Amino acid sequence: MITLYDYELSGNCYKLRLLMSFLGIGHKTVPVDFYPGREHKSEWFLKLNPLGQLPVIDDDGLILRDAQAILVYLASKYDPSGTWYPRENPALLGEISQWLAFADGITATASTARLHDALFYDFDIEAARAGAHRLFRILDEHLWFAEQEGRQWICSAPHPTIADIACFPYIMLSEEGGISRQDYPAIRRWCDRVKRIKGFIVMSGVFPAGPARAAA
Amino acid sequence: MTKCTDPVVLNLWHPVGAIAEIAPGAVQRTVLLEERLSFAVGVDGEPVVWRSRPDLRRADEVAAADRLPAKSAYGYVWTSLGSPPAELFPIPEYAEPDRRRLNAATFGVNVSAPRAIENFLDMGHFPYVHTDILGAEPHTEVKEYDVEISVDRDEILATRCRFFQPMASTASEGGADVDYVYRVPHPYCSVLYKSSPVDESRRDVIAIFLQPVDQEHVRAHMLLCVLDENSEDKVIKRFQQTIFGQDKPILENQVPKRLPLDPRAETPIRADKSAIAYRRWLSQKGVTYGVIPAAA
What we know:
The complex is a heterodimer of chains A (216) and B (296).
Chain A: E1 2-6, H1 11-23, E2 27-31, H2 43-48, E3 56-59, E4 62-65, H3 67-78, H4 90-119, H5 125-148, H6 162-172, H7 185-195
Parallel strand pairs in A: 1-2
Antiparallel strand pairs in A: 1-3, 3-4
Helix pairs in contact in A: 1-3, 1-6, 4-5, 4-6, 5-7
Chain B: H1 7-10, E1 14-18, E2 28-32, E3 35-41, E4 47-51, E5 67-68, E6 70-73, E7 76-79, E8 100-109, H2 113-121, H3 126-129, E9 146-150, E10 155-165, E11 176-186, E12 189-195, E13 203-214, E14 217-226, H4 233-252, E15 259-260, H5 273-285, E16 291-292
Parallel strand pairs in B: 15-16
Antiparallel strand pairs in B: 1-7, 2-3, 3-4, 4-5, 6-7, 8-14, 9-10, 10-11, 11-12, 12-13, 13-14
């Protein structure tokens, strides 16, 4: 049984809840009082993850940290269709890794801005917002060109991959850090497509897709 | 933006931080009504609040004349930039020894304090924003309820509110019709009483205390004062944070961010009775901060 050390308002934890929901895998949740309790810096938690960061999973004794690493593990182990992390396709794996690293950049900018505004972290807010806009511009262009070629997802596959999951949460939550998505129409269309994947679930601050068809 | 000149708001008590989250003596910095403040709570539990200055690094360095009014109440430090009343509004339930008393969280929200109060008073959004927790389709109707502005207590009271809730609290075992009473005893604070799933003769108390950072930003402090013998603190907090996290994008997308007090500015429906009373009450008090006053 998978145990997820989880904080409801964490986009990084949500990535794992989302993938497990898409894959239909059950799991147990151990709530961690990230805020205001800073339980991720407590002694017991640092034994699980010396970096003091969420999320962490424990899968029958295998303890893993880092949202992107855990996405790789869960998709490799529990996705019988092999589409979320196609282990047989080196080119696609390279692309996925590239966008997983990009997702870390989104965390370092968009998530940082949200932590500043909502939880009063002492960060350089203007730098965080400017960094997020730079990444959003790059992703928006990438998605726009992909659409011109008839593709719907971040990587060159006819199906979503864990790269889509890794990039999604902190883009969806960006407005909580004062980062508008108004100027990124291709990102907005892609977000809507992610919300329509079978098994999609929300977190606080993310709403389901409307009943209408996907945005044009 | 100019600093606050609204005498009504300047003379109020305002919350600035949760005492349980502050180490004794540690100086905290915050912003209230566009003024930078520092505060600390001594080992004796007494708070000291002052306007931040580089030469004042500890509470004991602050001369009496430089100290702002300070009060400890309901687990928070309160202060005022004007001449506040002797007493803060009462919440008698806070003293009941069997209650769990927690700050669910203090969140920064990009909204005016009055908009946040209005959202707190609104039941109509439960099924859509708090789906499967505080509401669910098809139970969307806000049934008739009563609202009064109590003259002697100077507060708004909404009673006879009822709503079907799939999971009203951490102690719930299933859906139930839940009774609500709302009080607004302070322009930027509201106290909600809802049926307790564990004792039908009593009510859980959930309060929202908004610290106006400026006219369009608040720090929202959420007090929980609930009956629940079983859940861990962090589970109770998580429940309330989940709810508030759902409200947050709705609050931050309100336009305009300040609450318009002109009765013609926004079209209310029957379910908005408490919001109408709240806007009228703010107008009668002459509140101008965080609102768009009605044309004279």
